[in-house]
# Entry
Amino acid sequence: METLKPPPAGLEAPDVLPAAPAAVSAETSGLGGTYSTTLVATPTQEAVNSPDLATAASNLASDLGTFSTTAVSSSGSASSYVGANAVQDVAPCSGTRAPVRLGPTVATSCQTAQGPAVTWHVGPWLAQVESANAPTPTAAASSVASWLAEHALPAAGKGLISVSLTGATQPANGASCIVLWSYSRDVYQVSAPGSGEAALQMAESMRPWPGG
# Structure
C-alpha cells in the first residue's frame, strides 16, 4: 500500500492475509477512484509492484485474492454501487423457491441461470451460495452461515457476499468468494479464489490504513 501516496480518505487494508506456502507479495493500483491491491504467492517476499511479480501474477495458482477501496460522492451512491453489483453477482431465482434452514437462519433455495443457489439476509448483508450444474449447495451455505454467526463483518450500509462453487461436493472453503459493502462514502471489496473463508476473514479484518 506504500505506493498509494497520499492514501485516500477511507482507505482500508486487512490485518489477516490468505495463507501462502512461502511468502505473500502485492501489486497495487489506483485508477478511476478505486484503490486496489492484488495478493500474490511468491517464493520470497517481493517489493510492492516489483517487476518480478508479473510472472507470478499471471499464474492463477499464485493468485491469493484482492482488496480494494472505491471512493464515491455520497453514502447513497455507495449503497447504489453495491446494489448495482448485487444485480451482477447475485443470481435471481428462475424456478420454484423453497425455504431451507441454515441453523437458526431461514434461507431460500431455488434454481438460477447459474445453477442451484441458497440466498439469505444477515442484517444489511445479502448472502448467496450458488453451485454450477450441481445439487443445491445447502452444506456449503450452512458453513458460510455458521461462520457469519460466529464472526463480525465490518459495519455496512449495504453488503453483499457471493460464493460460487464449481461442484456440489465442495465445501465453502473450496469456492471463490466476493465480499462487497458500503460504508459512508466508500465501497470496499474483498475477493479470494479457492477459499470462501479466506475472503470472509480478510473482510472481517479490514482496518483503516495507515495506522488502523
Remarks:
- Residues 183 and 191 are 18 Å apart (CA to CA).
- The chain has one domain: 12-208.
